Structure formats: structure tokens, C-alpha cells
Structure prediction request, 113 residues.
Amino acid sequence: MDKQALLTPRVTATTDTVDIEGVGTVTVRALSRWEMIHVFKLESNRHKQEQAALSFGMVDPAMTEDDVAAWQKAAPAMELEAVARKINELSGIGKDAAKSDVPGDGDGSDAGV
Prediction:
């Protein structure tokens, strides 16, 4: 086994798009394990949790946490939810992910974003 293969970032290889009505299409990617743990640590502050997760997962356009905060203020309630669900799905977590042994993967909770 080549250790370098384990250390090479691979999350950017898993991307998908989300259509945002009246705005356009965004591209998102799966979160790395490090990013998911960082997001989970923010569980007590849902705004910050979503800002972190979306800033990590947005590929096109790339967005900072401040950008996501401004988007949260400007968007209809469920607009960001669709993007967050796609990031969760790609990351293998949340209620849209396939059944696995990952907490929050279909047990009715939305443990990710």
C-alpha cells in the first residue's frame, strides 16, 4: 500500500450540481472527514454550522463563510437546504445518504449540515 495514496485529497472528485430556481446552478462536493468533524463541533450554532459546511462544500461558486452568511440573509428558507442536502448526500451523511453505519445517515436526523 502506498501511504501517499491515503494522504492525497480525493473529495473534490465527487461533485454534483444543484439548480437554484431563478438564480442558476451551483456545483458542490463531498466534505472531507476533517471538514465534517469541524462542522459537527459547531452543532450548538446552526447558523455557523451551515456557513462552515457550505463554504467547504461549494465548488462553483466558491464561497467563504461570510458569503454564506449573506446568502442566508438573502435567500428563501429552503434554498440553502437543497444545497446542504446534496453536500450531505455526497459526503455519505444525513437523511439522503444511503444506509451505512455512519450516524445520521438515514435515521431521521440531519447530523451533517
